[in-house]
Write a structure and sequence with these properties.
six-stranded antiparallel sheet, alpha+beta, 3 helices
Amino acid sequence: MSIWWSLHLRREAASVPLARRLLLGTMETAGVDPDVSYDLSLALSEACANAVEHGGNAASNGPSEAYRVTAYLDGETCRIEVADSGPGFPSGLRQELDPAPAGRCSHRPPARTVHSEAENGRGLCLIHELADHVHIGNKPGRGGAVVSFDKILKWREDTPLVTA
């Protein structure tokens, strides 16, 4: 089974739950295990929130006022990509983030130290903890950031769409 969809969303806070609900609905219909669905929807929410907050130029009313979410459920994997038209990531953050030892987020080099009670600054680490593979980078040419992540899917026993 293969399902994919793509959304072009305005950089507004209300777009984040819209993307999350669409992903959860797709996964529910496809028969994905609820725990896996929840992890991916939380990671998607973090990536969308970053695009809304950082993904544009406040002085511009052009393409930087939108971002794109694409989700692929293909076989045993779900891959999600969130791309914006903002300034992109600093060069030190463009990298692949593979699983870190002892469950720690291991940006190389660290983006910055985040205080344990801070409300911001943990999104990329949270995405890293929830997904099996994470890639962050900048779009070639036009600028903007891209966060993509994937996770191996588990299926409910009563899954209607999975072929044996």
